[in-house]
Amino acid sequence: MTLSAAAQYGAQHLTRGIGRLSQHVFVEGRGSYLTTDTGKRLLDMTSGIGVVNLGHCHPAVTRAAQEQCGKLTHAQLNIGFNGPQIELLRALQPIMPDPSLDTFFLWNSGSEAVEAAVKVARRSTGRPNIIVAQGSYHGRTAATAAMTRSKTLYGEGVGPLMPGVFSMAFPYYSQMCMPHDTPTDTLVDVALQRVRLLLQQETAPRDTAAILLEPVLGEGGYVPAPPAYLAGLREICDEHGMLLIVDEVQSGFGRTGKMFAIEHAGVRPDMVVFAKGIANGYPLSGIVASKATMDAMPPGSMGGTYAGNAVACAAAQATIQAFRDERVLDNVAARHTELLEGLDALRAMPVGALIEDVRGHGLMMGVQFRAPRPIASALTQACLERGMLLLSTSAFDAVRWIPPLTVSREELAQALGIFKDALEAVAHAEGCL
Predict the structure, then answer these.
(1) Helix-helix angle 310-325:328-347, to 10 degrees
(2) What residue ranges define each of the domains in the chain, with the CATH number in brackets?
(3) Does 404 sit behind a cis peptide bond, omega within 30 degrees of 0 on the bond before it?
(4) pTM of whole model > 0.90?
(5) How far apart are CA 288 and CA 265, in angstroms?
(6) How far, in Å, are 242, 355, 356, 419 from residue 370 at the CA level?
(7) What class of enzyme is it (predicted)?
(8) pLDDT tens digits for the chain (433 residues)?
(9) How far apart are CA 278 and CA 89, in angstroms?
(10) Where are the beta strands (DSSP E) in 324-390?
């Protein structure tokens, strides 16, 4: 591929530490499509890794941000409140997965919000240690890289990282080195036994502030946590006075068909971390917990120059309203069924023998392969060549479907057609058929 002048300049002057699916320079986005500086139009099944849940440049969100830019762009939260921030809190509180979650801190990115959650957990419990799930992803900063267990890449060669982090088992057959057809009940039972053993052998409950996990593993393979596993963790936390913190950075704001993925299990979290889809592309994140938990932090201990930015808060308000006005969750349910049907139809074809597992909720779906050699990376490139953006994920051979939650039936059908053609091409090139 010949790079545009802009892409060549970017390749020369942006750090090589940024991994990229493509060398395209995107200049416009509308709905489910991105356009490059060379005029190429691409069907986007990544949504900016789960950020533009309402599609690129959603009109209502764009209008809200434009109007706010003409009123107030920056009101530093350690100096005073800003109007959009207060109105956003009014919109957020009713959609939280439990009524006890009523006190917020707004920041900029998912990694920052995870770090804020750790500070609050340690301060409110008086305990230092954090337990995370094997396969989890919580960020790339020094502290969040210490809590990330999806790949070693994020902390490799830059240690020592934040201490006091311990790993627990997650009931995912690949993660637990068990056969694909291992019953879920077995995976859950073994995982919970290992969590209890961890508390006996590695981090005592009196030293453990919280269990932090994604209710759907993101970078770890798009694997939903079984409800029984989440219920078991809730029981363990209650037994030992630990907090249960769910990282909904990628799974929140409608991505799984409910506003938050934890709602599928009906389990009460003590704290929720959110970001990505909340403002449909504007940088905003946050944590929420009970007032008693959050108020353990003394005044001045929380803050940030751009935290709770007025423009981002206005965009977030518009995003939440659009979910209601446009019945977005109904669209997610319909498209989820069509995506499953399309993938099941593909599995019935000869090339479908390469598909080991299809899993997920809503429009957060993972497809794992059982080819003689890994094919996910080649598959995403084959999709790119055919005009579609799709991402691989995890240390295992899997891809993730993250289309905009507003994707149409026709767009999803087109995406499935590209996926089929790309998979067949890769299978033939790799000698898998």
Answers:
(1) 70
(2) 5-54+327-429 (3.90.1150.10), 62-325 (3.40.640.10)
(3) no
(4) yes
(5) 19
(6) 39, 6, 5, 17
(7) transferase
(8) 678 999 999 999 999 999 999 999 999 999 999 999 999 999 999 999 999 999 999 999 999 999 999 999 999 999 999 999 999 999 999 999 999 999 999 999 999 999 999 999 999 999 999 999 999 999 999 999 999 999 999 999 999 999 999 999 999 999 999 999 999 999 999 999 999 999 999 999 999 999 999 999 999 999 999 999 999 999 999 999 999 999 999 999 999 999 999 999 999 999 999 999 999 999 999 999 999 999 999 999 999 999 999 999 999 999 999 999 999 999 999 999 999 999 999 999 999 999 999 999 999 999 999 988 999 999 999 999 999 999 999 999 999 999 999 999 999 999 999 999 999 999 999 888 7
(9) 12
(10) 355-361, 364-369, 388-389
Instruction: Give the residue among 111, 54, 101 at the shortest CA–CA distance from 407.
Output: 54
